[in-house]
């Protein structure tokens, strides 16, 4: 899409906290209006609408829209965001196993600034399935890279949590 549209979407999201809880529908209407400007078949419309539903507490309404955006060919950074957010929404509606299946391949995807969000969301999905040691291993491994000291120790502890006999 063009820069003007992207700027207006960014501005809408920057104003999200200005909407009171009882104005969630008003915020979604802003996003719906922006999505309506897109060409038919664009994956950006359902993605932005999914984000709006999700951000206003309606994971159930967001899930099909995230799926639609990915099915329409959403790519790059937004596609990775969609997978993270879809996994979180799936977890919220009791379908954490689907979230694990969707995010696990992202652990091997090219690295970017969303790596820790992938691990954190996957850890939550795993925890919802009673797989707390695996989830803790993921978050410790992600945290290790940000520590001023003890990176190697924390990374080793993270691996030990999921190794046989660990």
Span of the ends, CA to CA: 49 Å
Q: Name the CATH class.
A: Mainly Alpha
Number of helices: 9
- How is the quaternary structure best described? single chain
Account of the 3D structure:
The protein is an all-alpha fold. The protein has one domain (3-130): Tetratricopeptide repeat domain (Serine Threonine Protein Phosphatase 5, Tetratricopeptide repeat). The chain is built from 9 helices and no strands. It has helices at 3-14, 24-36, 44-55, 59-71, 76-92, 96-103, 115-128, 132-144, 151-162. The longest helix has 17 residues, at 76-92. The protein is elongated, with a radius of gyration of 18 Å.
Question: How is the topology of this model organized?
Answer:
Layout lengths: L2 H12 L9 H13 L7 H12 L3 H13 L4 H17 L3 H8 L11 H14 L3 H13 L6 H12 L4
Which key phrases capture this entry?
166 residues, mainly alpha, Serine Threonine Protein Phosphatase 5, Tetratricopeptide repeat, 9 helices, elongated
Task: Briefly say what this structure is.
By secondary structure, the protein is mostly helical. The protein has helices at 3-14, 24-36, 44-55, 59-71, 76-92, 96-103, 115-128, 132-144, 151-162.
